[in-house]
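[audit] Reproducing an earlier prediction to check determinism. Same input, same settings, fresh worker. If the tokens differ from the archived copy the diff job will pick it up downstream; this log only records the rerun itself.
[audit] input (445 residues):
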Amino acid sequence: MNILCHIVILICALIISGCSSKYAPSPLTEAPYLERAQTQSRGGITVTAAVLSAKESQKVFGVDLADKGVQPVWVKIKNETESRIVFLPIALDPDYFSPHEVSFLNHQKFQGDTNDKMDKDFDDRGIDLETIKPNEDMSGFVFTNLNHGVKLVNIVLSGDQKTERFMFLFEVPGIETNYQTVDFKNLYAEDEIVDFTDQEELRQALKNLPCCTTAEDGSGEGDPINFVIISDPKDLLAAFIKRRWDVTQALSETGEFSSAGEVYSVSGYKTAPMGILYMYGRRQDVGFQKSRQKEGNRLRQRNQVRIWLTPMRYNGKPIWIASVSRDIGSDINRKKYWFVAAEIDPEIDESRDYLTEDITLSLGVSKLGWVTGVGETTPDNPHVNLLEQPWWTDGYRGVVVLEGGQIPLAELQIFPWEDLEEKHTTEYEDKLNRRDSPLEFKERE
């Protein structure tokens, strides 16, 4: 064999060696994620669930599942009823992955034996549509789409002419969110808390809120305070996560992005930090966003909500105020902060109305309404935010009350305050009345 053949064989060996990596999944007995497991029991059925972080899933399965957009959810179901029950994984994630699909995504080149073992491991550990007989149990992983920060786990079981639903909310290790940096218990002294029981007094208090967010020193007027949420913290978080909003990562103390990758991001980075706005002398307590598109540099196209806890309560429930807007793209022509600033939709009421519709469909809203307070502006005389971006509004704030559990839309109540529909109908009629009729137009011609 000549020296050229030896070189070719050596190069091929190096290529094969470089294309493979050690595949060493951990035994399921090593399961630190189970320390965060949650359990619910009802009607003879016990469900336990746990969500794996990116690091945990890589250790358990021996491959980087998060890099492929996959997040394992461990589920255990114990059936102590007299009937069979069926587990429906599609309720947990309509786009869940099959075990072999996830394995194939992680196959290694020229490693047939390793890939065969990987196929078997994923098949053994995964669960699909499953039937659990009376007095039996089953456990395994459902391979869902990746969620950073917070994940809602919805377990639906069908059987004996009825359906049981078990819903869990998990904080997933891996990122630091806005709300994790806030000491909510000590934000306000006891004598600062005001609890309203009369809805007319509540209305006046919400009308008297400041129009807009500010700069850090309290100066200027930024984006509007155009939404109010009356809710316990867990119900607020659950309602947004149900509707597929993502929590946002907290920016550094200086308000800087830690890397350009946080600004120019692919679709997987749905928890990218938002710019900071201020109320009560502090940055937003909670942030949520919905990314618009799924490929390339799409960070700048998203709905976003910045939320602050107020010192007010309504019948004991905390009152949160929010600034809701929609990023529609970047504008490099802006004079300030063009690198991280996005262009907002200037018709900002659309963003408020979208959130009203979306949060109502969470089926957690017991009551909604509208109050004035932002101050009406028009496209001809718009408000300008801290980044010199124009926006206009009818001046209304959306208000929702959130409860635990599910509330049918037929049971939704309305605050007897301002009538948004009537206002818009009247404005439209006024516009029609101000127009010249076709006859008058012809006569002037």
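[audit] rerun output stored. Observation attached for the diff report: The CA atoms of residues 365 and 388 lie 35 Å apart.
[audit] end
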